[in-house]
Amino acid sequence: MVGVESIVSRDVPRHALLIDPADQTPDVAAKRAIAAAMAGSSMILIGGSSGTDSDNVDRTVVAIREALELIEWAATQDSDAQTQGRIPIILFPQGANALSPNADGITFMMLMNSTDPRFLIGEQVAGASYIKKAGIRPIPMGYLICAPGGKAGEVGKAELIKPGDVKRVSSYAAAAELFGFQLLYLEAGSGAATPVSQDLISAARRSTDIPIVVGGGIRNGATARIAVEAGADWIVTGTLGEEFENADELREVISELIISMRSNE
Length: 265
Ligand code: 1GP
What we know:
With 265 residues, the chain is of the alpha/beta class. It has one domain: FMN-linked oxidoreductases (TIM Barrel, Alpha-Beta Barrel). It is built from 9 helices and 8 strands. Strands 1-2-3-4-5-6-7-8 form an 8-stranded parallel barrel, surrounded by 6 helices. Helix 1 packs across helix 2 and helix 5 packs parallel to helix 6. The model has no long low-confidence stretch (mean pLDDT 95). SN-glycerol-1-phosphate binds next to strand 8 and helix 8.
């Protein structure tokens, strides 16, 4: 069992690769996950706003897990290689119908600015017994969708947080902490033309000490760095990973992104 405790601790800024099982076969997903792990990513998130179900999610989780276990085993056979252990595979589901017992954990989330009770509590209740029974480690998370919001905003019926709405994001961040959430995810929507604004991230950062995850529209190190400077602990990229068929190229791109988001220049 891979430990997931470090996910909710504040550390150096870390990168997570989001894999959407609706957009790629399990084999391709596994190749991309290996590239990310070798580039220094710290977590694989599995999810999407639509088109995922327990079948494609589970097949994707299993393929990624087997691939990551294989490279970890290979590293233990090489006395020169540095082994950091397998990175965790965490579900980031659209709902209770897209789960897998083979994941290491799940972002058990409330879409806090949804207008639909289904995303505030309904899907969580529908999935809770299964998650407990399967022994998937829950990571309680507040999920906030900011403009433009994309498909996640539409599907989740979110009242989007505008780039300058710092008071609102502060209140949500404080509420997330009081609920006991261990992560706060600021989402601009997959493929967003503009990522979550620096003002929103720093306002959330001032309101809570829980780790902040930022994703949506981040495609390069400079954009990731802006989010980190504002207070992001985790940078999530999804679309970026899907732009590269070649695993070596993807590894290079993610590696550069991680180096620049951690640099102070
Ligand atoms: C979406 O925040 C993630 O949930 C990732 O967004 O696809 O734009 O990287 P991108």
